[in-house]
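Look at one such:
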Amino acid sequence: MVVAMGSKHQHCRSSSSSNCISLKFSTIISAIVLLSTSFYLLISPVKHLPEPLSWAAGRKARFNGDLRDATFPWNSLCFGQNHNEKLKLAVFSKSWPIGAGPGGMERHAATLYQTLAARGHEIHVFTAPSDRKPHVDIHQGNLHVYFVANDHGSVNCSLAFEIFNTINGREAFDYVHTESVSLPHWRAKVVPRVAVTWHGIWYEIMHSKLFEELLLNPQEVSQKPVVAELQEAMPRLIDEIRFFPTYTQHICISNSAGEVLVKIYQLPEKNVHVILNGVDETKFVHDLEAGVRFRKKHGVPENVSLVMGVAGRLVRDKGHPLLHEAFSTITKTHAGIYLLVAGSGPWGKRYEELGPNVKVLGALESSELSEFYNAIDVFVNPTLRPQGLDLTLIEAMHCGKPVLTPNYPSIVGTVVVNESFGYTFSPNVKSFVEALKSVIRDGPKVLQRKGSICREYALSMFTATKMASAYERFFLCMKNPRFCQYPLPTDC
């Protein structure tokens, strides 16, 4: 399938660029609050799900039929070994991880495509380096990564399509896959076989803006750009709902996002699928000795009663104002609590100002992350972004750590499916402090038990092997409908 392209180069435009209609701020807030309420009533679990492993096993045991009809994560099924049918996939990704500190979407992409290539499939990735510096293309076995950055360091779509058309002309790709809008919708129109994985949708982003707004002090409201972003939220959401059908198939990384695409975005249920993110289970492992070494290396006092950890970009929308205030409050009455902060960003210096109970580590290399998780008693994710599926949560779970996280539908309905995994809170300081008190009250022994349950569940759902196996079967299904049947004789 050779795609005809114009001779002029076009750079990627923002997926949400549109002539937004002007709406009054009060109207926008009312609409958002209304949608927020409907969102939670629609998707939030009314009660906890059963124990995780029996739940996953039940899915596997019960399902028999066309995978395109599955309304639960494909990761909970067990697919057989490669069917000796090789795929040739074209991939468009926002960036490729270089060095320390890349975001979760980049790390997800690298893990997925490296694993698919190792399974024998021919993978061609059109992307830009995460550090925005010049790099030579990568050609390692079946994996081919083309760095096609423009002058600003983002993907040059026209250059990517020139290379895409050349490779496609030699032997047609079986399918095209894009990470979110890395392949813009106006480009997707000319690609007949394209699937998109959504790492965040505007319906969820709209809630992020709302939570950020509610966290502000009243005197700050008029000074923050989030107000303007809230005013634009509804028009952007409408624009997104209108262009989503441009993509043929849609993959969501949380159960809640899948329901939104069907019930709010009105996409056909057969075109919406849930495949959860996974991380390399050989890199993120439970290792008590590694944790002890990490504590000694970074000077964690031996007499602390409990060590909490947070990782990621130290920016406002990741919830660091929330954690900063909550931790400041809790240490006034619990002096033995210690916080390890892994990451870089403007909130790093503010954490350092909290005194000896906090250690800011800076951005860690991927090889150090597992040691970091093993060094803590509980992993804290204070994010104000109820979207996507944060890799740090499942990395920590793989290392046998319980989690403390907001009670968003994308998290509670997919990752923290019951209280045995850890603790949840509403995204405000009071609720966060109460959750911290629960963690402290339970103490290290209870946290260890919860961490063991987290690890067991992560190994059953959130591994690179499970993720790649689900994506492999998805693309085989799209190529040949006979692979849509489950179980096949070769399935486990």
